[in-house]
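Supplementary Methods, section 5.1.

A reviewer requested that the exact input to the structure prediction be made available. We therefore reproduce it here, unchanged from the version used in the analyses.
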Amino acid sequence: MTHKNWLLLLSSLFILNCSGKKEETETSQTYSNPIDVQFGDPYILDDGNGTYYMYGTGGGAVNGFAAYSSTDLINWKPEGQVYTGNTDNSWNEKWFWAPEVYKRNGKYYIFFSAQWKENPTNEEENFMIGVAVADKPTGPFTDLFDRPIFNPGYPIIDANVLFDKSGKTYLYYSRACYKHPVESEVADWAKEQGLYEEIEESWVYGVELESDFSGVIGEPQLLLRPPMAMDDEQAEWESRSVTSKEINRRWTEGSFIFERNGTYYIMYSANYYAGKNYAVGYATGDSPLGPFSKAANNPVLQKNVDQGGDVTGTGHNMVLFNADSSKMYTVYHGRTTQSGQERVVFIDEMHIDENGQLVVDGPSTSSKPLPKLKP
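The structure derived from this sequence is encoded cell-by-cell as follows.
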C-alpha cells in the first residue's frame, strides 16, 4: 500500500469514527421533567429562527409577565419582565394570568387575562382579556388598546387564538366560575351530602375575532362545559374537585385548539388549578366553533401519584409542533414533591393514534430523548 493510500485509509477511518461518535452523541442526549422554570400556564412561541420564548403566569414578574428563551426547549435563559400592567395608562390593575404570544406580520402580540380597573360594582373577580404589542418577543409590550378586547358581561380568563386556514381569526376563552352557579346532578349530590349548597362552573367559549384584535364578530358560542349527569363518562374526572371536597367549583378552562387533517382538537383543563386533581382532556369537531364532542380516552394528562409517580396538578397546556409538524409536544405545568405548591413546567411528546385519539406520553419525570425540533 502506498503512503498516499495509507493516509486516505486513515482519513476514512477517522471520518467514520467521528461520524459514528457524533451520531451516538446526538441520539444519547436526554432531558427529564420538570424543566427548570417555575411558571404556571406556560406558553412557548417558536420565533422561526431557532429560538423559542416561554411566557407564563408568575416567573418573578410583578404586575405583568416575564419571558425565557431557549434554542433546545430544555435550557432556558431569563429575559426579564416583558410586560408591565397596573400603570396609569393600562386598563388592568392586578392578577395577571395566562399569557400567549403570537407573531403576526413582524409584530408580537401578547393576549392575557387581568383584573379590569373599570369595576363599578366592586366585583371580586372582574377579569377580562386584553392584548399588547411589541417589536421583539422580549418586549417591551405595550397595550394595543386602553380597554379589554371586549366585555361579554361576565369575567373571562385564558385567551387562546386560532388563525384558521379559512383566513378567519378566533378567540377562545373561559367564563370564570365567579357567581355562576349551575344546576346539575353533581350539584344535587353535593348538596345531599352536605358538602356545598351550590356548585359554580366555568365554561369555554369561542368567538370570531377582528383581524386587528379590536373586538369580536358575532356572539360567543358555548363550546365546552362540565357534564350535568352523574353517569356521563366525563363526570367522574371532571368533578374530582367537588367529590374530593376541595372546593365548590367545576372548571373547564385553559383551552388550546389546533387542526389536523380536517379535525379540530380543543384541549382543556378541569378541576381546581391549585389542587392535585387538575387534569387535561380534549374534544373534537369539524369546525373552529364546533360542535365539539369530548373524547372517550379523557383525561389524557393527569396526576401519576396513584401509580407510584411524583406529579400532581397537571394542566393548562399548549401544543408545540416541530419544524415540519411531524412531532408535537404538549407543554404544561404541574407540581412535584420537590416543587411543593410551586408550579413547574413539563414538556412531553404527544401524538394522534390510528383512531384519531390524542395520546400524551406523560406526565414523565424519567430521562427521555431531547425534543426533535428539525425534520
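The two ends are 42 Å apart (CA to CA). These observations are discussed further in the main text.
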